[in-house]
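Render this sequence as a predicted structure.
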Amino acid sequence: MKRLHIHISVSDLQKSSEFYSQLFAQKPSVEKDDYVKWLLNDPRLNFAISNRSTKLGLDHLGIQAENDEELSEIKSAIELSQASLKEELGTSCCYSNSDKYWTLDPDGNAWEAFHSLSEIPTYGLEQSDSGKQACCAPNEQTSNKHTEAACC
């Protein structure tokens, strides 16, 4: 079963972590110095916050697939929408190795479709030593059709 994903960039990770833990009445499933995540079942949501971006607020939205078949279904839906598609297979981001597809909605909001394969000890292998940087969300300059690129 798929899970909606929301990633928000915050200015004070500790304060926001306390707020969302109270709001969700649940402790985070992942807590790092720069990233916190909750996996909620009601509503079914993967909610993450980080302080890695210089832009506060909504970083990106997404759909978390539980297996390759679900991820393939989401990819097909993106392709049918004629929106841009950025493929990132086996990428490392947000303390996970994942297969991902990125797209932008008509207003330029980034949507991530992903299947997490395993946990990793760093935010992202390419990003771990590069200072603050948002997750791998594409920007509006992402090409319009089916581009393949390495993570970030």
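Summary. The chain is about 15% helix and 40% strand. The mean pLDDT is 86.
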